[in-house]
Amino acid sequence: MEIFKNYQFHYSLTGNKNQPTLLFLHGFTGNSQDFSSIIPLLLKSYCCLAVDLPGHGKTKVNGDETCYNMSKTAQALIHLLDDLEIDKCLLLGYSMGGRLALYMTLHFPERFEKVVLESASPGLKTEKERSHRLEADLQLAQKLENSNIKDFLFNWYDRPLFKSLKNSPHFDKLIETRLANNPLELAKSLRNMGIGNQPSLWEKLAQNQIPLLLLAGEYDDKFTTINIEIASLCPAARLEIVPKAGHNIHFENIDTFVALVRQFYD
After folding, report:
1. pLDDT band at 147 (very low <50, low <70, confident <90, very high)
2. Which pLDDT value is given to residue 3?
């Protein structure tokens, strides 16, 4: 419980509390509002809990920088569920939130019924890969601290991973919501929750018995390849390649995304 005292989570809890709870975990530079278009489409069946992760949105962290890492964040979220008297729930994580969702599934399997991982990964396999990536994450975090957040966001989304997202007519609106983030807080998240600092989860996949739905966009070659491998290693997982979408599926093809999520949870 001591760990939980270091966090003041900002969250929205909407819907009928007698229905199954669905916990949403957003990606890097996002916040709980990332799912504001999705949640109204699911409220008939689920009570929806969307959380600002440490370093993002309005969540406050009172402890040191280790409070931003995956292990402590996962424990704190479990305490938040306890605090809200949610014993077991459904889970949905996107990108960074998907990596966190997978970690929570593997470490707290008794708390989750079914889990959707959107454009997620189990981390990097080798110490060498993690070391190289951590160095890059630290440099990027320093750049974030020293630059204009708008410039950083445009550079961040200029990567090939987000090519189809940038072509969306609503891309400017997405950037606008992310400008509310504090760059110093985002840098702490990147240093500690970034993939360079994340423990590899690859070797734990075969043990998992919680049903997983893996979603990857058809334009996202990198994460399609990663998720094909996850599905081959984890008998409880099945993969859906979503058409007309890249990395951010719930933003680029909302109708197909919601239909797949409903079908899986129901």
Report:
1. confident
2. 72
Q: Is 230 helix (H, G, I), strand (E, B) or coil?
A: helix
**Letter string b/e over residues 68-93, b meaning 16 or more CB atoms within 10 A of that residue's CB:** bbbebbbbbbbbbbeebebeebbbbb
Rounded Cα distance between 130 and 120, Å, is: 16
Torsion of CA 138, 50, 157, 216, to 10 degrees: 100
Question: SS3 string of 155-199?
Answer: HHCCCHHHHHHHCCCCHHHHHHHHCCCCHHHHHHHHHHHCCCCCC
Question: Mean of the per-residue pLDDT values for the chain?
Answer: 96
pLDDT digits 0-9 by tens, 248-262? 999 999 999 999 999
Residue 249's SS3 state is: helix
Contacts of 145 (CB under 8 A, 6+ apart): 183, 184, 187
Measured at the alpha carbon of residue 155, what is the angle toward residues 150 and 158, in degrees to the nearest 5?
125
Judge whether 120 and 95 are in contact, CB under 8 Å: yes
Tokens representing 201 are 């989860």
| φ/ψ of residue 61, rounded to 5 | -115, 125
pTM score over 0.90 = yes
Q: At what angle do helices 70-83 and 183-193 cross, to 10 degrees?
A: 110
Residue-wise pLDDT for 211-240, tens only, equals: 999 999 999 999 999 999 999 999 999 999
